[in-house]
Amino acid sequence: MYSEKVMDHFMNPRNVGEIEDADGVGQVGNAKCGDIMKMYLKIENDIIVEAKFKTFGCGAAVATSSMSTELVVGKTVDEALKITNKAVAEALDGLPPAKMHCSNLAEEAIRAAIEDYKRKNGLLSECEMAGSCGRRCDDIHHDHNDNDEEDED
Ligand code: FES
Fold first, then answer.
1. Active site residues
2. Please, are residues 71 and 91 in contact by the beta-carbon 8 Å criterion?
3. Looking at ligand 1, which residue's alpha carbon is closest to its atom 4?
Protein backbone atom coordinates (compact mmCIF):
# COMPACT_ATOMS: atom_id res chain seq x y z
CA MET A 1 0.00 0.00 0.00
CA TYR A 2 2.97 2.32 0.36
CA SER A 3 5.01 3.30 -2.68
CA GLU A 4 8.65 2.29 -2.90
CA LYS A 5 9.64 5.92 -2.40
CA VAL A 6 7.63 6.18 0.80
CA MET A 7 9.25 3.01 2.11
CA ASP A 8 12.70 4.26 1.08
CA HIS A 9 12.27 7.61 2.85
CA PHE A 10 10.81 5.87 5.89
CA MET A 11 13.60 3.29 6.14
CA ASN A 12 16.39 5.73 5.18
CA PRO A 13 15.12 9.19 6.07
CA ARG A 14 17.23 12.05 4.67
CA ASN A 15 18.37 15.01 6.73
CA VAL A 16 17.40 13.72 10.16
CA GLY A 17 18.69 15.79 13.05
CA GLU A 18 18.90 19.42 13.99
CA ILE A 19 20.80 22.49 12.87
CA GLU A 20 22.31 24.19 15.89
CA ASP A 21 22.50 27.66 14.36
CA ALA A 22 19.30 27.33 12.33
CA ASP A 23 17.79 30.55 10.97
CA GLY A 24 14.28 29.21 11.37
CA VAL A 25 12.81 26.46 13.53
CA GLY A 26 9.22 25.30 13.38
CA GLN A 27 7.43 22.70 15.42
CA VAL A 28 3.95 21.48 14.62
CA GLY A 29 1.71 18.75 15.89
CA ASN A 30 -1.09 16.69 14.47
CA ALA A 31 -4.05 17.11 16.79
CA LYS A 32 -5.61 13.87 15.62
CA CYS A 33 -2.77 11.47 16.41
CA GLY A 34 -0.43 13.53 18.61
CA ASP A 35 2.52 13.15 16.24
CA ILE A 36 5.08 15.97 16.22
CA MET A 37 7.47 17.33 13.60
CA LYS A 38 10.26 19.82 14.11
CA MET A 39 11.92 21.46 11.11
CA TYR A 40 15.22 23.39 11.08
CA LEU A 41 16.20 25.64 8.19
CA LYS A 42 19.45 27.39 7.32
CA ILE A 43 18.72 30.34 5.05
CA GLU A 44 21.27 32.46 3.20
CA ASN A 45 20.33 35.37 0.93
CA ASP A 46 16.71 34.23 0.90
CA ILE A 47 17.67 30.73 -0.25
CA ILE A 48 17.22 27.64 1.91
CA VAL A 49 20.65 26.03 1.96
CA GLU A 50 20.06 23.29 4.54
CA ALA A 51 17.06 21.58 6.14
CA LYS A 52 16.88 19.00 8.89
CA PHE A 53 14.01 17.48 10.80
CA LYS A 54 13.01 15.43 13.78
CA THR A 55 9.70 13.64 13.62
CA PHE A 56 8.02 11.67 16.34
CA GLY A 57 5.36 10.07 14.27
CA CYS A 58 4.13 7.43 11.89
CA GLY A 59 5.94 6.15 8.81
CA ALA A 60 4.09 8.50 6.48
CA ALA A 61 5.03 11.46 8.67
CA VAL A 62 8.70 10.43 8.65
CA ALA A 63 8.69 9.90 4.87
CA THR A 64 6.98 13.23 4.16
CA SER A 65 9.37 15.07 6.51
CA SER A 66 12.31 13.51 4.75
CA MET A 67 11.00 14.36 1.29
CA SER A 68 10.07 17.90 2.30
CA THR A 69 13.64 18.61 3.44
CA GLU A 70 14.83 17.51 0.00
CA LEU A 71 12.23 19.68 -1.73
CA VAL A 72 12.98 22.91 0.15
CA VAL A 73 16.75 22.95 -0.22
CA GLY A 74 17.76 25.28 -3.04
CA LYS A 75 14.42 27.08 -3.04
CA THR A 76 13.77 30.67 -2.10
CA VAL A 77 11.68 31.31 0.99
CA ASP A 78 8.67 32.24 -1.15
CA GLU A 79 9.03 29.14 -3.31
CA ALA A 80 9.23 26.95 -0.21
CA LEU A 81 6.06 28.52 1.15
CA LYS A 82 4.23 27.28 -1.94
CA ILE A 83 5.11 23.63 -1.30
CA THR A 84 1.87 21.90 -0.42
CA ASN A 85 1.29 18.63 1.35
CA LYS A 86 -0.04 17.30 -1.96
CA ALA A 87 3.24 18.18 -3.69
CA VAL A 88 5.18 16.36 -0.98
CA ALA A 89 2.91 13.32 -1.30
CA GLU A 90 3.21 13.38 -5.10
CA ALA A 91 6.99 13.50 -4.86
CA LEU A 92 6.69 10.27 -2.88
CA ASP A 93 4.51 8.73 -5.61
CA GLY A 94 1.43 9.16 -3.46
CA LEU A 95 0.16 8.21 -0.03
CA PRO A 96 -2.82 6.05 0.86
CA PRO A 97 -5.87 8.32 1.33
CA ALA A 98 -6.06 7.48 5.02
CA LYS A 99 -2.50 8.77 5.48
CA MET A 100 -2.79 12.02 3.52
CA HIS A 101 -3.40 13.95 6.73
CA CYS A 102 0.08 12.93 7.89
CA SER A 103 1.57 14.98 5.06
CA ASN A 104 0.00 18.13 6.52
CA LEU A 105 2.71 18.09 9.15
CA ALA A 106 5.43 18.58 6.53
CA GLU A 107 3.70 21.56 4.91
CA GLU A 108 2.94 23.14 8.26
CA ALA A 109 6.45 22.56 9.65
CA ILE A 110 8.05 24.28 6.64
CA ARG A 111 5.68 27.20 7.06
CA ALA A 112 6.31 27.43 10.81
CA ALA A 113 10.09 27.39 10.34
CA ILE A 114 9.90 30.12 7.68
CA GLU A 115 7.61 32.19 9.87
CA ASP A 116 10.18 31.87 12.68
CA TYR A 117 12.92 32.99 10.28
CA LYS A 118 10.84 35.95 9.14
CA ARG A 119 9.98 36.93 12.70
CA LYS A 120 13.64 36.87 13.75
CA ASN A 121 14.59 39.02 10.77
CA GLY A 122 11.72 41.50 10.91
CA LEU A 123 10.31 40.23 7.63
CA LEU A 124 6.77 39.39 8.69
CA SER A 125 4.06 41.25 6.83
CA GLU A 126 1.47 43.21 8.78
CA CYS A 127 -1.04 40.48 8.20
CA GLU A 128 1.31 37.79 9.42
CA MET A 129 2.11 39.80 12.54
CA ALA A 130 -1.55 40.32 13.31
CA GLY A 131 -2.16 36.72 14.14
CA SER A 132 -0.43 33.42 14.60
CA CYS A 133 -3.02 31.27 12.92
CA GLY A 134 -0.45 29.96 10.42
CA ARG A 135 -2.58 30.46 7.33
CA ARG A 136 -1.01 31.90 4.23
CA CYS A 137 -1.88 35.56 4.10
CA ASP A 138 -0.90 35.83 0.43
CA ASP A 139 -3.53 33.31 -0.52
CA ILE A 140 -6.30 33.86 1.98
CA HIS A 141 -7.41 37.17 3.32
CA HIS A 142 -9.12 36.16 6.45
CA ASP A 143 -10.28 37.47 9.75
CA HIS A 144 -7.68 36.78 12.41
CA ASN A 145 -10.41 36.68 15.03
CA ASP A 146 -11.79 33.64 13.29
CA ASN A 147 -8.76 31.45 13.61
CA ASP A 148 -10.07 28.48 15.50
CA GLU A 149 -10.99 26.45 12.47
CA GLU A 150 -7.92 24.88 10.96
CA ASP A 151 -8.11 22.38 8.14
CA GLU A 152 -10.09 19.42 9.23
CA ASP A 153 -8.71 16.68 7.02
FE1 FES B 1 0.15 10.85 12.98
FE2 FES B 1 0.56 9.99 10.57
S3 FES B 1 -0.65 9.04 12.09
S4 FES B 1 1.13 11.89 11.38
1. 33, 102
2. yes
3. 102
Q: Give the global pTM.
A: 0.82
Q: Is the CB of 43 under 6 A from ligand 1?
A: no
User: pLDDT tens per residue, the chain (153 residues)?
Assistant: 899 999 999 999 999 999 999 999 999 998 889 999 999 999 999 999 999 999 999 999 999 999 999 999 999 999 999 999 999 999 999 999 999 999 999 999 999 999 999 999 988 876 666 655 555 555 544 454 544 444 545
Tell me, using a 6 A CB cutoff, whether residue 92 lines ligand 1.
Answer: no
58 closest CA partner among 5, 101, 113, 114: 101
The CATH number, out of the four listed (3.90.1010.10, 3.10.20.310, 3.40.50.2000, 3.30.300.30), of the domain defined by the range 4-130: 3.90.1010.10
**Centre of ligand 1 from the C-alpha of residue 123, in Å:** 32
Task: From 97, 94, 101, select the one nearest 37 (Cα to Cα).
Answer: 101
- 67: closest CA among 145, 116, 111, 13? 13
